[in-house]
Sequence to fold (1317 residues):
Amino acid sequence: MKRQRRLSPSILVMLGALAFAGVACGGGDAEEPAAPATTAAPTAVAAGPLRVAIVAPSASDDLAFSQSMVDSVNALERDVELSITDGTFIVEDAAAAIRGYAEDGNDVVIAHGTQFGASLMEIAPDFPDVTFVWGTASDTQGLDNVFAYAPAADEGGYVNGSIAASLTDSGVIGVVGPIEAGDAVAYINGFEAGALAGGASEVNITYTGSFGDVALAAEAAEAHLANDVDVLTGTAQMVVGAVGVATDAGVPWFGTQANQTSLAPDLVVASQVYHWEVVLEEMLALRDGGVLGGQAFEINLANGGLVIEFNDGFELPAGVRDAAEAMIEAITNGTVDTSNATPAVAAGPLRVAIVAPSASDDLAFSQSMVDSVNALERDVELSITDGTFIVEDAAAAIRGYAEDGNDVVIAHGTQFGASLMEIAPDFPDVTFVWGTASDTQGLDNVFAYAPAADEGGYVNGSIAASLTDSGVIGVVGPIEAGDAVAYINGFEAGALAGGASEVNITYTGSFGDVALAAEAAEAHLANDVDVLTGTAQMVVGAVGVATDAGVPWFGTQANQTSLAPDLVVASQVYHWEVVLEEMLALRDGGVLGGQAFEINLANGGLVIEFNDGFELPAGVRDAAEAMIEAITNGTVSTGS
Amino acid sequence: MLKAVLGALVPLLAAVVAFAFGAIMLLALGASPLAGLDAMLDGAFGSGSRIAATAVKATPLILVGAGITIAFRTSVINIGGESQIIAGALLSTVVALSLPDLPAFILVPLVLLAGAIGGTILGAIPGALKAYASVNEILSTIMLNLVMVQFMNFLLRGPLIDPFELEAGTRIPQTQRLSDNAALPTLIDGTRLHIGVPVAVLAAVVAYLVLWRTPTGFRLRAVGHSPEAARAAGINVKRNVTLAMALSGSLAGIAGSILVFGSEGQRMVTDGSAAGFTGSAGFNGIVAALFGGLHPLWTIPSAMLFGALLTGATQLQRVLQVPAALAVALNGIIVIFVISSTPVRGWLQRSLADSGLFNRSTDHVEAD
Amino acid sequence: MGDFFTLSVLVATAASAIRLATPYLLASLGETIGQRSGVLNLGVDGVMLLSAFFSYWAVLETGNLWLAVLVGLVVGLAMGILYGVITVGLSATQGISGIGIFIFGLGLSDLLFRQQVGTPKPVRRLPNVDVPILSDIPHLGEALFQRNLLTYLAFLLVPATALLLSRTTFGLNIRSVGENPQAADSLGVSVERTRFVAILIGNSMAGLAGAALVLQLGIFQPNLTQGLGFIAVALVYFGAWRPAGVMGGALLYGLVNATVLQWKALGIIPVSGSDLANMAPAILTILALIALARRVHAPSALTKPFTRH
Fold:
């Protein structure tokens, strides 16, 4: 064993070779030049090109993340001397490269990898004259010579997703992702939200667990295809495997990070391309002005840092391109919000529950909500508890539905508000929808809705005025509250403005007492009333009386033609789905509540539905349409 | 004496040929070979801090290599360095997250100890599988490497993730900044030379002492030399096989904790692959060990040289803008050429013959 | 979970498993031959990367898939000559020289790709060829007999390798040289030449494996194999140095991977469980080996260079 003490020949060899070579280079050459002090005066732009270095985690020509930065620096409109160290996914090696570039005297060192952040925090303070640029990140950690940059990748993801939804026949879209982190997860979440909002029924996402495993990405794509997927997308450099599979199967592909058209010239629809130069220019301008860092930047659709580059070689169906441009516009101006980490929509139908105070087929208030949910253009699994006018019972039902795991619980009754304020905070993932109300009481998982019932009331009133001979119109109301009073006030205003001499209003004091409503109607008739209207579910009693007396009826909340096919003139119908769609879109984007909505004539939430079985005198219909128009554009105010 | 000089000449020639090959590749890429060599040397040894960086790069190689020598001398082939490094890193990270306020003089040794324990577990498992279930260790260690990568990803993106990442939604697989009390103290200011370097050297020395100065080491080497003879002498072969793998793993585990607590960023971070965290130290350590003749002490200079190749290569890429792939290919050529040269072969053969590694396979172990 | 057990999904999973298994099988069979003769080659991954690159480049330049396959084979053969010279001619330590080849192949393939190609360009992929009659079998036919020619070749090589080893003189030589080279030598068998040829065959098959991988995907990227070659080496141990066992290992590995992917696509494995699911192939392989534990006999001369005493 003593033999072990001899110096190992292999080591001798290597030492010898290195020494040999070292001598051959000449002694002085081994000294590196002293780092030039070019950045001493921050306000002086260094004579000669700007020395920029990039340290990137994958290949600089990977048609993905790293390439996007290299392309962007090359696109800068200034003289740049660029050095690149790529393929450095090992954090310690990257840290050495970053430090080395700083020591070499580069003006700007771009650490293009979120995982490099920790090291950068140690290195940056050692080089106060160097501007470090770090991404993807949204925080400069308080260092004043570090700029941060991040892509709002969810935005382009959302756009891609919405286009994908209009391309899919099967309704099933596949996503191949690397690891659930960084801009990958942002893109994928945005894509999923956009696709589902655009009408896709399923978005299947597979994270393969690797940024580089091409074969695994290919198989993940194959697995999606076996599940009826007919549109694909993905992110990270391994997607080339998935694109290959898409090419063979003739399946359209959406790209991100860089323009991926070259990978499949016939099948790439569009790519969300990162144009970092938009924010790089800003950073460099700041640096010219002496500010070396301390700000975070985002590239997004609004500032042009994210660009959806369409492939002209892929022919989109008519209107899709325009819809996409509109979507981009909507995201840009904030109408559509794409930016939340996890979309709240589960695969499969949306589970909605309605708790209503009266019968769901009451041809009035409750029915209006049920009809509206059924009119939604999405897959909904609906549960209903109706007839719960006792507030305690309704509260129990609301809570019960939330516990059952419904996604949306509609508390369709103003009187349920107080209970809702207790229940909603217990179920932060459930969206509660409450009406009629115009205030969400500060809860962020409650949406409120209210009808501008006075608008339709006014229209009805004006038509009623042209129908009355006696000039006296009767109204049967429940309780002076909510949409009832709004409707009735609007009706009265419209009727009087239209020439009626009297509008007699009776509030029976009950939403449900049919007999009382009938008696109220009788009482009106005894007072020369020759046109009737009313609101709430008890009106069926009044309509019965009207039918017997041959008196025309105006309805509200739902289309009441069936109650008296010869005598119903028109109904102001509540189309709640107009605002429900908006609420659900917000929920898809991660906003579960906190906004109040109104349905009115302008947004189509209120519609005056005429009964074709009732013949109106000449010109009355046109006058009504004109009235609707006038209310819509604000000429006529019906305000309550 | 003459024979020795001649003996050294041949491998020297081999090294020159290897470098010549590299020079040709550099020329083909439009770079000057001399400038390339200059860059490599400069990167590895060009300044005090560079030498320190080389030493730091070599540290995991020394540890893994020393561990490998223990295993190989017991005739078990431990290719599981990557998994053992990861396990050590994870366990030491958990300790630092759980006890951040302990004073440094307790916490630093504690995290190193935790690293050793983590690595021991990942060494003992394939060791026991081999000894008691006849599962070949090349297979089990390769598979465990794969398993630990995914486990690391799972932990770093789940329970151990930096809460800030969750808030920001970026979800980088990294922990929060770990307690400064656990940071490995720097030995020379202005350089990255931290206490991990002498720890590694110490570990290699301890490995040497254990193998050649203790009864345990004697038993291990006996098993490596001839399992049948060892059993006949009353040595529990199975237990020693397991022990060898466990010890080997423990050293790699310490390397893992050094990688975390000696890092610039003071946190455990990955890109999702094993090499993203370990830098392939689990692999390169094997080469370093074999270059050092499977002797723990010679593993030290061997690892330093390998570390120099690695740090020099980054400088090469940066200065000459030559793809890093060139340096990787060059490393491979150097390994092939040097290992092919005859006297090296002869010498290695002789010392490996003593270890018994490639004479007998412990796969023939009979039931105990 | 019901979604998974629909026939079309099961068939697709099986097809995916076979596709994934193909390069593993080719490389692993080659390694088996080499190891039976006593030679361990840890450089398989590097060989695969080089052959994959050159195959890819051949298709890129000429568009000819079969030329590309041939190129892959030839590159494997060339690497085999290199490895043979090092291992048999110079008797270098097999563990390290193999790793050297791996590092070399990794670096060179990466370098050449960057210099010659740069940005990944997609190429033609191997077309699926239906086996007459057999591919009409409902479901099973679709999974097994509508694959590409390299896959069929890989599976045909299983019995071919077994026959080679057990029934031919050359196979006998391989085995004896791997078991007891001294005895073989004394009987007049050239240990060096047998091992050299075994290495050539083994590396050529690794070359085919690289070609299969890249031509199935239709694109190349640095480090395309992601450690596939090492797993192929591990599978040799799994298969107890028998071709049929190796095939079982490759199929098991491919099947678990394919199933995990399918379950992820179906949502059976939620996104949060991705990482744990990714461990499945490796863990199952170990468990399978424990379950199937038997007295496994490695070639006695494995990794020992031969010197005449």
